[in-house]
Amino acid sequence: MKRELSQVIILSVLLIYFTYNGITSDFPVPYTITLIIAYLAVITYRVMKVLRLKKEKGTETLNKT
């Protein structure tokens, strides 16, 4: 779970960097928008995966008692 959380943090930092770099440079706007959407989709997927793992871990501890 720590690995998934660290990946979310790294992807968030990269999203901020690429967004800033795309806005301040002459990078085409459609490519910047596509990049932002792709990163947001991956980050959302990772967050959902972390939440699913957390939920499964919580139900396992409840079933053991």
What secondary-structure arrangement, pairings included, does this model have?
Blueprint: H1 2-24, H2 29-64
Helix pairs in contact: 1-2
In brief, what are we looking at here?
The chain has 2 helices and no strands. By secondary structure, the chain is mainly α.
The radius of gyration computed from the alpha-carbon positions, rounded to a whole number of angstroms, is 16 Å
Mean pLDDT over all positions: 84
List low-confidence stretches.
none
List the helices and strands in order.
Answer: HH
- The number of E-state strands comes to 0
Q: Report the structural category.
A: mainly alpha
β-strand amount: under 5%
State the helix count.
Answer: 2
Shape: elongated
Q: Describe the biggest sheet?
A: none
